[in-house]
Specification:
The chain is of the alpha/beta class and 214 residues long. It has 11 helices and 8 strands. Bound molecules: erythose-4-phosphate.
Length: 214
């Protein structure tokens, strides 16, 4: 499974990149706004050191506007993937991008049927938001299982990005269910390598080593 990092903070991306844990990056308008920086500058800087897909989201809500913005963003670097919202206008834009060879990530997907529509429109990636579904009392991971089954049934090449990740359990389940990618916020990435028994084990090895030396 590929790991993308879900942030627009370049320092955080560099830190995870140094660990070899960044196969790609996803951003969204909220994350860009939080960074307080110019959108295109951020995307350009990320593309200067990440060798993988970098999702940049359009702001327009009509297909024509999305296509206009998406073409501009795609021109920044060959690794830019245009993030398009899961609406009828978004599907129209996705179809146009696909015909032009511009890769797309259809975002704000909350059902397997939405994912199927995105795949039919030629999306390169779909982003089902598992955490936001969990937040309202639904099982976000159930949708991942359904999307995997549908894509496998018909041989869709569209890759599944498990998004809106809140905990290491989401990452574990993404792997168990065969998602292609999990896009993970830095706060969750930093939990992945940790286990209390690893710390206990290291402390015991060190103590035994010191004892044997005496
Ligand atoms: C996906 O690409 C989105 O950027 C992201 O995962 C949304 O997560 P949130 O629900 O934590 O905002």
């Amino acid at each position: 499974m590929k790991f993308f990092i879900d942030t627009a903070e370049v320092g955080e991306i560099r830190a995870a990149h140094a660990l070899g844990l960044v196969d790609g990056v996803t951003t969204n308008p909220s994350l860009i706004a939080k960074s307080g920086r110019d959108f295109k500058d951020v995307i350009r800087e990320i593309a200067s050191f990440v060798d993988g897909p970098i999702s940049a989201e359009v702001i327009a809500l009509d297909a024509e506007g999305m296509v206009r913005e998406g073409r501009e963003l795609a021109a920044i670097h060959e690794n830019i993937v245009i993030k398009v919202p899961m609406t009828e206008e978004g599907l129209k834009a996705t179809r146009i991008f696909s015909a032009e060879g511009i890769r797309t990530n259809v975002t704000l997907v909350f059902s397997a049927l939405q994912a199927l529509l995105a795949a039919k429109a030629g999306a390169s990636y779909v982003s089902p938001f598992v955490g936001r579904l969990d937040d309202v009392g639904h099982d976000g991971m159930e949708g991942i299982e359904q999307i995997r089954t549908i894509f496998d049934n018909y041989g869709y090449a569209t890759e599944i990005i498990v998004a809106s990740v809140r905990s290491p359990m989401h990452v574990l389940n993404a792997g168990l269910l065969g998602a292609d990618i999990c896009t993970i916020p830095p706060s969750v990435i930093s939990q992945l390598a940790k286990h209390p028994l690893t710390d206990v084990g290291i402390a015991k090895f060190m103590a035994d080593w010191e004892k044997a030396k005496k």
